[in-house]
Records
---
Amino acid sequence: MGLELYLDLLSQPCRAVYIFARKNRIPFELRTVDLLKGQNHSDDFVQVNPLRKVPALKDGDFTLAESVAILLYLARKYEAPDHWYPQDLQARARVDEYLSWQHTALQVSCTRAMWQKTMLPVFLGQRVPPETLAATLATLDRCLQLLEDVFLKGQDFLAGPRISVADLVAITELMHPVSAGCDIFKSRPKLAAWRQRVEAAVGEDLFREAHAVIMKAKDLPPADTAVKEKLKPLAQLFL
Ligand SMILES: N[C@@H](CCC(=O)N[C@@H](CS)C(=O)NCC(=O)O)C(=O)O
């Protein structure tokens, strides 16, 4: 069996992996893991990723979790064009710097914003205290400011003059709050111009396709009781 990618495009790190693989014409079998059905807890999936999270990769007997590790594995194995993850020591270190920062900063606030605006109230019927949402959006705003002031300072992309995996990881995160109705680009022309550049570099059709599921998340019908029970432990993490 060749390369298998276990994804649910509702998930932002899955979208980064999906776009990277498709954009670089990496052949893979898509194994959809439906998070809302709890398929990440199935016996079969746990064999692939005992951490029970997507994305996950299987390449023959080799399995791998964590989107950043997966992106770098794919970039190296398939010798993706240099700009995605440059060979140059310091250019690569800039990409690594962003990837290290985002996990505890942008990923956290984008995930919380989407859950607090969409998944909890709309899908699971759970009230989110306004002050909780306000605190999340304030943290998100501070992250957006850092994107503009630190990472995008004087350059077109987050880690240099050309698109890299850092930009893919960032844009797929940012589309999470966008899908929930947060107009995060409105008063941020610098970030909005960067988004246009990233979309153009990825290709608008692929970008739209990868985000189709998340952009419809706010129209999901309310979950039934069994799904609510299943997602309860996860949902509590975002309150
Ligand atoms: N740091 C991980 C995050 C993976 C992650 O949290 N995946 C979520 C979807 S975005 C998941 O699978 N959640 C299911 C669960 O926790 O039950 C990465 O970047 O791959």
Note: The pocket of glutathione is lined by residues 11-13, 35, 40, 52-55, 66-67, 103, 234 (CB under 6 Å).
---
Amino acid sequence: MAITLPALTPIEDSLFLTLYARALDKRSSRPILADKTADEIVHNLDYDYQKFHLSTNLIINVAQRAKKLDEVASGFLARNPDAVGLDLGAGLDSRMVRIDPPPTVDWYDVDFPGVITARERLRPHHGNAHGVGADLREPHWLDSIPSDRPAVIVADGLMAFLTQDEWVSLHNRLISHFPSGEIAYNNYTKFAIRAAKHSRGTQSVADLVKSPGVDDPHEPERWNPKLKLIKEILLVREPEVAEFPTAIRLYNRLLATSTALSRKGTVVFHYRF
Ligand SMILES: C[S@@+](CC[C@H](N)C(=O)[O-])C[C@H]1O[C@@H](n2cnc3c(N)ncnc32)[C@H](O)[C@@H]1O
């Protein structure tokens, strides 16, 4: 029988857009991420998914950026099996299931309390997975997370919902809480913010976008001197592009010819501290 969740706030509700995109990627003929759990949750959850008008491009984009963040997290956890992993604004994403970290890792999915309650209803409990129900703009949510272990912190689809000051403060709190670690997230350039506000596929979240966007991957290094850029991952230059449908693949190849054009596509910022 289909599960119906209590109504979520508009900002929490944004999680269904990315969840549905990952489910549609799984159902496509050439999945990029192939997230079986997303497909199962969408199948089991009574929700009006048809209100989203997701283009193939957006579906691929959501799947590819999740894959890149999975790679960052699993690479770090393989090198640091005593670490903790954090997914900020986790929604109903099953990143921990996808990356399957060593049993010594503790994984924290952080989102508003209503979302964490929904996660716990939908997902079987896993011993090393912890839900933290909190507003990431508040200062004390990190208190329940160990501060003596290295951390890999990912945020998929979160940045756009925070003001620049809130985003900078979040970085600073994370960097001062952990002894060392890595942070990776899909960045929104000023162009991407304008696109998110005006594209049909993201109309449901347009009014919730607060970030002005960041164009320079070195800008966060100026927010906190401990932060060092590892890589600006330009998704149009990543190997998954070879699997894209022809028209989208050719468009990505065109953008990939210059860094400036590549930044019109999705970019993942990856730092160490
Ligand atoms: C677009 S959804 C992405 C969800 C998930 N990362 C994914 O890829 O499916 C954005 C998520 O960020 C969460 N979020 C936004 N602002 C937040 C805040 N201030 N504190 C905690 N969570 C927040 C929302 O509740 C939502 O689950």
Note: The radius of gyration is 18 Å.
